[in-house]
Amino acid sequence: MLLILLCLFIIVVVVQFLYYIVFFGKFSFAKPQISTPKRVPISIIVCAKNEEENIINFIPLLAEQNYPDYEIVLIDDASNDDTLEIFEAFEKQYSNVKLVKVKNNEAFWGNKKFALTLGIKAAQNEYLLFTDADCYPKTKEWVKEMSAQFTKEKTIVLGYGAYEKIKNSFLNKIIRFETLLTATQYFSWAKLGKPYMGIGRNMAYKREEFFKTNGFIEHMKIRSGDDDLFINEAATNKNTTICFTTDSFTFSKPKTTFKEWFTQKRRHVATAKHYKSFDRSQLAVFYVTQLLFFILPIILLAFQFQWMIVLSIIVFRYVFAWISLGFAAGKLKEKDVMYWFPIIEIILVISQFNIFITNTFSKPVHWK
Asked: What pTM value is reported for the model?
């Protein structure tokens, strides 16, 4: 029995090697990205619901982009605070701001996808760049960098949405590591020709891609997924590319309590179950092998079965995983979280299992 477990442990590490080195290596070991400005007309789309505190600080940063031809489409999704009034002030202040006011609709009550659909239809440009109301671009070159990746064939661009660093916060390191790992996954699979998700904090696509899939109609009843479910449906190996230049990053304020972060991750995991079968399978295999990597050696070492071999395999796995994610962290400017890699990974695996159990018995809350 123990010999079987040892063989299974070896298989698990081999699968992990394939993920970290072969699959994730497509992004981790990729050459630095060089941008060639396209200067196509762009419409930045921001959907907000009760975001008065964030938009006061962040919308002006969108208006200061170093780009010759762009508009900002601000969508107020029936906010109860002063979001609409602030948007109206921005519309008067900036000539390139267009305001879309959304009233609650009985058929699409509180559905962000309905609000985004109205914003997309109102945009005057064919190329659309998305971010969230609680996000801001790292530099004034954000629009230029993201739009530079568009070509005649590549009409979907997946970007990186980072989180602000908070000193002396271990939760912040967990959040940023998880964001790094997720980005490494979806960037790598996109480079492998199997794009499966993007993030609404930083992504772009040509409007024709939206109408090719009839917008969000296939998953309109699912409250989340205006970003990843759309990409899962619309993205292909021919029309999708990535952007990971430093100036293309956006930043968001991270959750500051474990409860808030856990709730956020519950929504993400609940959405992932609607991915295509291949994408669900590859994500499941990665997580299951992560989980087994911790369970199997504990059993083997508890019985002191071939403990030298077991320890050697553990070291080997950590070396190649650390190297792969280390290169990815360098590209995404998240190197500091890698010092905590072994500890954070264990926490994430346990949290993921907890989320799976919790979501089985209750549904997470979505758009405000």
From this structure: 0.93
